Amino acid sequence: MIEIIQQPWPWYIAGPMIAITLFFMLYFGKNFGLSSNLRTMCSIGGGGKYADFFNFEWKNQLWNIVFLLGTILGGFISSQLLSNNEPIELSDQIISNLNDWGITSYTSGIVPTEIFSLEALFTLRGAIMLIIGGFFVGFGSRYAGGCTSGHAISGLSDLQLPSLIAVIGFFIGGLISAHFILPVLFQL
Prior knowledge:
Blueprint lengths: L1 H5 L4 H17 L8 H9 L17 H19 L11 H9 L17 H4 L2 H20 L4 H10 L3 H26 L2
């Protein structure tokens, strides 16, 4: 039984589950997205005293905070109890690229420690990724009126043109970052 749980769910199970969840969210007038949690948390903390953007009835958004906590708890449970600890399978081209960039720990866990560790955080590369990358993610999600999950899952299922434009922009930005910016960052 546990072996079945450790395997990724096929699209014909996971996809309809996402669709059913979105149907109920739309039916009850809720929009999916995680970036709105920051607004809610700032409002709970009194941000409305300093910016009108945070001045709203945050108690109506508590379900979204519960969803965020469930996402964190689900990630913890899946990584600690449901992972099979086998190295991920990568193509020869990706392995070659990672080795060229000095990333060799891709077989020892879910993410490479050269990027995702406390030691990596206090390097020039880590600071650039955290500070500048964090600024762009925060600015971009505010400017686009939502995050990738909100636009790509909820907005597209609701057939919103602004969500389609935002998702196209997210993909273009991701491709530019992956092909041009990351190789330069990994040479630092």
